[in-house]
Design a protein that fits this description.
34% helix; Metallo-beta-lactamase, Chain A; 12 strands; single chain; five-stranded mixed sheet; 318 residues; alpha/beta
């Protein structure tokens, strides 16, 4: 009988422990289920020009006489296939040319889904950045056979592809060292890449220091885009903008950079300037708090590089 009693006691204790573990687990905060990426949406700007939002950076689609030109290729193979399917609903013409505004993965990695032999045009520094990514193991770059097949080397190049007039600009490194601005003069449309986005505060442009981006170059490029005869600016992420929107962003960012320069002259340290001029939250976002706030350590990694960090480094460079 003692063995039976011990067995029953053991079963009861196991049940109690199981109930306790379940109770504790129920009280722990549960990670939210992964969210599906937002669906791709197609917006028509002109009879022959569309913008695809979602699936990575924004893509501009231009329908030529016999083929289609795409600016920025989406982030993944699946996202690019979705884009190509949407293009097929617009026109039976094949995609023949892809322009890349910069080398970030959410704009170039979708190239894996494009037809073999598609012409890929980018700034020469963009190609160098992709080659460096491939040499480091391939993260952040499409396959080697999708590297740019034609590079832009001048500050301005003009070309006509399939009846579509294009002007390509690279005034200076800005978001990256290999930024390329694609301007359609007949349609008065500019594809800005991530030099201009709407998911960040006006005075907090996204500069990739590790890709030799530049706060001074950002100002130069935005001034150049404003001087173009354009009505619509297709941003790298977010909504389409007008010339007035770019002028507002330029004024806000110029004022912030000027404040950083003035504080440097006053002898303020980098940490003092960062405390006085923190990165503003993205439009519509609640201000970040604690370790995850701009300048904080986030989830235990190194502190993020802020706009002030990059501007300070440029302004104090000997």
């Amino acid at each position: 009988m003692s063995r039976v009693k011990n067995f029953r006691a053991g079963v009861a204790m196991a049940a109690c422990l199981s109930s306790l573990v379940a109770s504790v687990a129920a009280q722990q905060p549960q990670a939210p289920p992964p969210q599906a990426p937002p669906p791709l949406t197609m917006n028509q700007l002109k009879p022959d020009v569309w913008v695809a939002v979602g699936g990575g950076g924004n893509s501009t689609i231009i329908v030529g006489r016999t083929g289609v030109i795409v600016v920025d290729a989406k982030q993944t193979e699946a996202g690019a296939k979705d884009l190509l399917a949407q293009i097929a609903k617009i026109t039976p013409k094949p995609v023949t040319t892809v322009f890349l505004t910069h080398s970030d993965g959410d704009h170039v990695n979708g190239l894996v889904a494009y037809p073999a032999g598609v012409k890929v045009i980018a700034h020469e520094n963009n190609k160098k950045e992709q080659e460096a990514a491939l040499a480091a193991g391939g993260r952040g770059a499409p396959p080697p056979d999708r590297l740019p097949s034609q590079v832009v080397t001048k500050n301005k190049e003009t070309m006509t592809i399939d009846g579509v007039k294009l002007e390509l600009y690279h005034w200076a490194p800005a978001h990256t060292s290999g930024d390329l601005i694609v301007y359609l003069p007949d349609q008065k449309i500019v594809a800005t890449g991530d030099i201009v986005v709407t998911n960040r505060a006006d005075d907090n442009p996204n500069i990739h220091q590790e890709k030799n981006g530049s706060t001074a170059g950002w100002l130069t490029n935005v001034k150049g885009m404003i001087d173009l005869n354009a009505d619509t600016y297709v941003t790298g992420h977010g909504d389409m903008l007008t010339k007035a929107d770019l002028q507002r962003k330029l004024a806000a960012t110029t004022a912030r950079r000027d404040k950083i320069a003035a504080m440097i002259k006053e002898g303020k340290s980098l940490e003092e300037i960062k405390a006085a001029l923190p990165d503003a939250p993205a439009p519509g976002a609640a201000p970040a708090r604690g370790a995850g706030a701009p300048g904080g350590a986030g989830r235990g990694g190194p502190p993020p590089v802020t706009y002030v960090d990059i501007a300070y480094a440029e302004l104090t460079k000997k």
